[in-house]
Automatic annotation (TrEMBL):
Biased composition (Low complexity): 78-99
Region (Disordered): 1-60, 77-113, 155-181
Biological classification of the source: Eukaryota, Fungi, Dikarya, Basidiomycota, Agaricomycotina
Basic residues: bias regions: 31-40
Identification of the protein by name: Sensor domain-containing protein
Keywords: Membrane, Transmembrane, Transmembrane helix
Ranges of biased composition (kind: Pro residues): 100-113
Amino acid sequence: MTTMQDAAPDLGPLLGNAVDAHDPPPPYPSHRPRRTRQRRSLASGSEHVGFPTATTGEGQDNYEILDTLAVNINETVPLLSPDSPSSPRSLRLSRNPNPNITPVPVNPPPFPRPRTTSYTSTYLSTASSGTHPTRPPSLAHTVFSMFQSDDEMDLDENDRDYAPLPTHPPREGSEESSAPSAAWNRRSRSWRMYWRPLARRRYWMSLAHLLVVNFPFALAVWVYLFVFTLTGTTLLMALPLGAVLCFLNLLGARAFSRAELFLQSYFHDPLPYPLPYPPLPIFSRFRESTDEDEESRLFGSGHRAPLVYERSFYKNTYAMFTDPTSYRALFYFLVIKPSITLLFTLLFLVLTPLSFALIIPAPMLLRMARRLGLWQAGVAVEGLSLDIS
């Protein structure tokens, strides 16, 4: 019975001279476990960069080695810098089969690959940054900002007379150090910024609107719209009378919407949202001019205007009943504004006498009125004039 060694064919004649005796063996990987090599490289210390050593003997590893470099690596060294000796780009070695030649590091390219920006980081930084320029702050952010003093850059046109305190010490030429004078300047500046709302018109305007004007206006609007909405929808079975009441209801809602936007822009300027221009029509709407308007001498002897008022009562009525802003005004004046107005009116009726009686909380009360006024003004503009998508 023949063995496996006897059955194996002799491959020597088949290979011939394909393998030269002087050629080194191919760089077979070492059979040592990877964990051992990692532990040896880590145990060499943080000041040297080492690679697993290998002998040049036949049948063993033929990896090229790099002697330990005297490089001071600490936390300030970039992780992937192209010029860093520890970077993979600079540690690429030219593979030379001759063991007598010292391996030379491959030079990095003159222009490394530019670093890209992470989409996640930019999105999160944008989302976590300050408020959007066209988006008002939330109610929680508004309440939190009540207890913060205003920034010096937060000045309107009526506040240009505000001049910051000088930074030099109050006593020039004295033997005292500058530390007490700097502390005195900071303390004086803080107190001046704290009392500043008492001399600013916009804070008083916001308080006057929330305390005096807002509640009577909201009450009158709510009574008018509630009565006409209830009677109009109830009498729709008596179609002529119900249609007339619904017409007066929507017409009043659009007129009150125009008045609400005017009051908000007057008492709480600048608003978080820009007002629509031209303003939303109450009843008569604009349309593009036609040749018939020019033939009827609608423009007189002047030039042809691109937009003219619609003179058809039927078209204006149909447009008013089909316009979604009419029903948004109803929802705002019947649901949203009464709750906000009632809450803010009770709040300022209680806090205003106490704050001015104690004097010290008065600037904080004015800042609160300003913040809450801007917030509810943004709600009004968003609910009455902006498109909801």
